[in-house]
Specification:
The protein is an alpha/beta fold. It has a four-stranded parallel beta sheet. The longest helix is centred in the N-terminal third of the chain and has 17 residues.
Length: 89
């Protein structure tokens, strides 16, 4: 499985989100490759799941079932909750 953290510019905030996703994955026992990118570079075939903030999620041209939307990209509890919900589907 491949998870992509996405932000508007693909630099600091997506990298920070990538690190947070890796921490969360350990807590929820999910194994995945995690990377980060900017919104303009993502295509549906780059990953199985895309994690992004709500301010850019509606600009993404990605299938809704492949997107996890978070309100706060540095809130580990929220990221964990949203990822648990996604993987429990």
């Amino acid at each position: 499985m491949k998870i992509m953290a996405v932000c508007g510019s693909g630099l600091g905030s997506s990298f920070m989100m990538e690190m947070n996703i890796k921490k969360v994955l350990k807590n929820i026992d999910v194994t995945a490759d995690v990377d980060h990118s900017d919104l303009g570079s993502v295509t549906p075939d780059l990953a199985d799941v895309f994690v992004m903030a709500k301010d850019i999620a509606y600009s993404a041209n990605l299938p809704e079932d492949k997107v996890i939307i978070v309100n706060n990209i540095i809130d580990l509890k929220e990221i964990e909750q949203k990822m648990r919900e996604y993987f429990d589907k």
